[in-house]
Fold each of these.
Amino acid sequence: MRKLFISLVMSVGLMGCAAPSDGTNAYLLPKSTLDKPIFKVKTRVELPDYLDTIGIAYRKSENELVSARKHVWAENLEGLLEERIDSSDPSGESDKKLLITFEQFNGSYTGNAEVKGTWVLSEQDEELVRADFDSKVPLKEAGYEALVEALGEGLDEVLSDIQSQLP
């Protein structure tokens, strides 16, 4: 009887080790729907500190932004964005640089994914073109997986728009 009890305790203990202990879900951006290469200039991404965290950002109200604890980026968000954007071919116009600064890359209480910021094309530290971008993509359903999909769509929309505006 004692052996059966010990076996049962060990089995339950091992089952607990096999299951994720904290229920955290990690996400990557979905594959881009854009044709590559996207840009023929060197690109760089900048994020404010409140977006450069592991947790996916969500705006709970007009003035409150939170970073999720159980729904996180599988990699550094800046790195994920640069990876998507750096699918470019910088060999064409190597003197020009494109800086994309994100002010928003988050979900919202309005039911949208928000991708907002500014891009600047420069050559030898001289600004050639500057423009703002603002994309709001409605979530197809509730949840962080749908949010990440919508953020990917919004990012592709913004990148396509930037591409069409570059001289």
Amino acid sequence: MAIIEVSNLKKSFGDLDVLRNVSFEVNKGEVVAIIGPSGSGKSTMLRSLVHLEEVNGGSIRVQNEYLVQNGNYTDSKRLKQITSRMGMVFQHFNLFPHLTVEKNLELAPRHVKGESDVNVRHKSAELLKKVGLSDKAGVHPGKLSGGQKQRVAIARALMMNPDILLFDEPTSALDPELTEEVLQVMKQIAEEHMTMVIVTHEMGFARDVADRVIFMDHGEVIESGTPEQIFDHPKVERTRAFLNRALH
């Protein structure tokens, strides 16, 4: 069953078409990896799902509710309700530097959802354990490695109990040796059947973990299929050319 339906999404900055009639679906519990060269519109498309980018045309439906329909957005109250079901993990962590790790996790559930202190503390302790950072609860982000910061960011996204997790190049700001620890946490979450949409340049991860891979170039979906179809038997020359460069 489709939990996200995107159809004919268009976005332009002036004369530059960033998204051209992008259409795809994501099913409940599915892990979808979005790959493609820099500047192909991947991050813009992902950010539009949580209304961090406004599109110029097309529709986005999440759990059968329209965020935007034929370029017209729903009212702001409903926008908030729909986007609150999705958690976003950014390339550059976006942690509050003046707050400890546990306070970073606890801020939104307390202030946005009004959850009780007991609940929030219990949940933050559980999630820090899940991402292997129980010992860092009282530490400020400045004292953490990039990989640790990204794991905190993932735990923070999970604090809001999202139905869908979106990842925008979660490892591209990390040194290679720190990348693996973040990918391991993402793998673990995928195994729990969380619906995930991941913009990534980690081809091995996309191949191993994704149920489906979407290749984008110049603002368009060029090809989509299982990892085996895309990596071993791409149908389109542009996909083949990109993978030849990315894998060698």
Amino acid sequence: MGYDFDAIIIGSGAGGGTIAHTLAKAGKQVLLVERGPRFSDVEAFQDEQRMLINKEAFDDRQIQVNGRNAQLHIAGILGGGTALYGGVLMRPSPYDFHPGKFYEEWLPRHLWDWPITYDDLAPYFDQAEILFRVAGDHPSKMPHVGTAKNGYPGKVPPLEPINQQLEEGMKNAGLMPFHLPFAIDFDICLRCPKCPGFYCPNEARGSTVKRTIDEAALNYNLKIKTFTEAEYLVTNSSKKVTGIRLICRETKKVEELTAKVYILSAGALGSPVILMKSGLTERSGQLGRNYMYHCGALVAGLFKQDIGGADKFIKQLGFTDLYLGTEEFPHKLGLAQTVPIPGILSLQQNFPVPIPKAIAEYLLKRMLVITGIVEDLPQEENRIELGKDGKISLFHKFHSYDVYRSQYYQKKLKQVFQSAGTVFALGATGDKDDIHTSHQVGTTRFGNDPNTSVLNTDCRLHDRENVFVVDGGFMPNALGVSPALTIAANALRVGDIMLEKGVI
């Protein structure tokens, strides 16, 4: 049988963009399909109204979120989440692969351990850090998480003055701060004060567009279709999918293409929807369930002086001292890191009380934010559903244990700011917001048992031998760091498996 392509990949983020590069570089004919456009409007790069309020670069679908219509903060352009993320690429802890060590009380026995270990992914973390040119601090400063044994390929710039002050405050609080590792080329980075949620004006950020997709399209056999919807996979009575139906969102042209393998990387929301539309609901009943995104806490500290956050890049510091819990609080938490305030409009929109523009401008110059990650527990009732009318619904509520840990993290982050000399600090926990669903994982988890998992260890559907999923949906739990590097590393692993086993 002849095929149009060796592989058709749906979604261009950390998973899809990475595996596209792997397969195309190996000489395979690959088609990469992206629902959104290639974003190239330079006027919008640093326009807060267009990027964060109007959400021009985000997924444009209206989702029923806990019963109401909403547009989620999920990237909707070529490059997926990597096109808009803050660039922090960190390895998880080896203990993240054994959640039963921390959540024995809350998880069924089959979820206590991943079907692979940290050591299985370690060489692929090395490859991903090189591929995305990660710049980072000395690994010895980063306790409790996996680190690059030979250091990071790139170097980070010196700390800004406010972060030197914050670093001292963290040390005074008994913590070990480090410079966050970034997939950013700091030799050309413009040090914009805005980064997450905004498209990089000179592509210093290591998105898949910059690091994998365009290179593979130029040098290898990768073809790209943007603004194209993958409607469903074509199936028959065999164990193989025989085609995929695509619709150009601009011209409405419909085409059905064939490939040896079909790889979904449309996100923990998008991939299960495509499988549901295709009738591939499998036997475990877990497809679309266990939707997770980090809970955690966010605390803003007000300093007496202008800290430079309105004018330059000050997202630099993190710590992992509380990652595995402490004697004071023996419960697993995650990474804490500084994050920028995107701008005046976002500050006004998220401040506890209405504030005029003049006050927002004053605060923007003097406020710094730290967020602490708390991984939310997988719960079957947190799920994606597809209505008969094609409407997507998301149901999600954080577990009480997630909220409990987030409240503690909020308290600790306020103490850090006090040590750093802030005038005051105010905070919130992640359970107050169900729109900013970044770090989404869990809806197509992998495992050894087809009765409790959607994918096998190779991230292949248990009941369809030529369908793979390589986005964050494969994860049984949410990790204590952003999942981006783990998704990219796993995509490299799955790409190697495909090539070694000759399935492509």
Amino acid sequence: MTAAMAQQQHKTGRNVVVVGTQWGDEGKGKVVDWLTDHASAVVRFQGGHNAGHTLVINGKKTALQLIPSGVMREGVACFIGNGVVVDPTHLLGEIERLEAAGVEVRSRLFISESCPLILPFHVEVDKAREAQRETSGAGKIGTTGKGIGPAYEDKVARRALRVQDLKHPERFERKLRELLELHNFILQGYLHAEALAFEPIFEHAMRVAEKLKPMLADVGLRVHETNLAGGNVLFEGAQGTLLDIDHGTYPYVTSSNCVAGNAAAGSGVGPDKLHYILGITKAYTTRVGSGPFPTELPMDEPGSVGHHLSTVGQERGTVTGRPRRCGWLDGAAMKRSILINGLSGLCITKLDVLDGLEEILLGVGYELDGRRIDVLPLDADEIVQCKPVYESFAGWKQSTVGCTKWDELPANARRYLERVQALIGAPIDMVSTGPDRAHTILLRHPYRS
């Protein structure tokens, strides 16, 4: 190796991907914010403003939906990759809310020109479909009604309006007329909803275009240049692996690929640039919306474990405010996530929510038609029929809130986590013991391992 090659190799930055390993809401935002202290840039690579990351910094809550969580770290570049669908009105609103709180955003936010746009008719189609499913008895999927799915459909059908089209008013106008005609046909003729007018959509889009143009960028190239300059990059996933459009509990899934491999495709870099994959999982399990959930617990009865998890964990969706369904940690589902993502390590969040429980159960597999199954099936109808198999652990009375060292945890908490680690076959590298940045136990650093 030449001296120049050695110098270049030394300078190249290290990249970490953060993904959820359950049905979303695992606490990724806090972990991304914590890791960003060691990164030059954060990239969001899929989803839209149907995702919600809540950060607590010095006791103050900040809810983000589209802008990468790294925005709360001064001087860190924030990239929205091509795999994200962008509602420009929502994006500008989120920028303005952060700016009102004293956070500098526009000088360090960069949006891929290849991002598909979410427009008003996508939202109306999304809402009308859910209403139709409910009326017909088919049952809601449980979408957020933000237009995410219809926007991805236009992308796959190769008819989407993209962020880059905002730079060309004549092209935007032509494509918008064609796309609106199609969606109005669907709204009126199939979904029995009202059509939308062209002019208000076009005029509003042109107004927001002037505000977004300075932030447009070739995200893949910028990430590459950041690495070459020695900067570390953090790739931030939204939702969770079990909501992945291909690998989740279909059809009760989101509209994008939430898995680690999509960090490359959704941001424009090669998979060789994904050096470490960190999976985030709660010490128990939650799910928002419809779909199978083998370890789910009833939450209505005060004093029950389900009620405890829901209330102590403050389990409500960041975007919708809907109550999250709660249950025991599902090790068999976790095995599926590890298989798909190729995890380097795990971060366990919300361990403190289990404080005070007499007994803690851990799902280690299922029984289905007299068979033992150790990994979550891919067929949602089969999952519904699965009966969880549990192992029991003694709880702990001591508080784990704010612990920053492994040895500070109660012995029973350590036994529980050690069994989780052995069951799923991935090392626990971090433990979150509260919502604040400082409430973190570090066992192995993703940027230094």
